[in-house]
Amino acid sequence: MRLVISSDNHIDVNRLDLTTTLQFQANWLVQHQVDLYFHLGDLFNNFGQTKAYFQQLQLLTPQTKCFYLAGNHEMINLAPFSMLEGTTDSRYFHKSYLDLPGTNWRIIGNNGWYDYSFSTFAQESDRVAKWKNVYWLDSTADQPLTDQARMEQVLQTLTDQFKNAQQNHRQVILLTHFAPQKVLLHQYPATLSVRRQEAAEMIRAMMGSQRLGKLIQQYPNVKQVYYGHLHGYRPQQTIGNVDYINVAVGVNKRRHNEWDQPNFKQQWVQHLKVLNF
């Protein structure tokens, strides 16, 4: 069995031709005899477009089961909170799991979220929320609760799933969009001005949750975590007995290029994670 994992393809932000990209990815999955393909969020700035893309990808790759999570970019358009938490699309992997036949491995998926715990402003939630509402893309997302309450729901769901996997003697591979450990974040230089340092800490607040990292480390059956959201090359890191692997493709920006390959096709292939069982 062969699994392939990717994240943060940003097809619209990277201004890629949709038909060409879809056909290329489908051909690659077929040629490499992939059984399971997972994308961990930020395919489009629109949940409906991501859902439609995976419907088409599945039709082109009948031998591959295709699944997706929603990143924060998906959550800003055609993504009411009730839909993100309760859609019945079989390809949507949020709050789902899959046991790999003939093994003791279980794949668990959760979009994740953030609670400001990566930031020095973690205890100043009102200040961070005000900054977010002015400057951050996610301010347009439908969210009937605070970021901290939303993260609490994520943690409770994963606690239940980790316990269930443990009871069933399953080793876990967790798939999520947001960063699960602060140590995985980019380290800003100490020479930043006060204003830029404040902005950097505000951005850190929206990168993920250290509480998720703490939860993961409490369950010895959780062996690997794959995540996106953080662009640019991120080496695999092992914390305790858990491997943390970033699979984000990132954005080809004119001023700050996040790619280490000359084009999207090579960048996508280079940053795929292929698992063989």
TrEMBL record:
<dbReference type="InterPro" id="IPR029052">
    <property type="entry name" value="Metallo-depent_PP-like"/>
</dbReference>
<protein>
    <submittedName>
        <fullName>Phosphoesterase</fullName>
    </submittedName>
</protein>
<dbReference type="Pfam" id="PF00149">
    <property type="entry name" value="Metallophos"/>
</dbReference>
<dbReference type="GO" id="GO:0016787">
    <property type="term" value="F:hydrolase activity"/>
</dbReference>
<feature type="domain" description="Calcineurin-like phosphoesterase">
    <location>
        <begin position="1"/>
        <end position="233"/>
    </location>
</feature>
<dbReference type="InterPro" id="IPR022302">
    <property type="entry name" value="Phosphoesterase_putative"/>
</dbReference>
<dbReference type="InterPro" id="IPR004843">
    <property type="entry name" value="Calcineurin-like_PHP"/>
</dbReference>
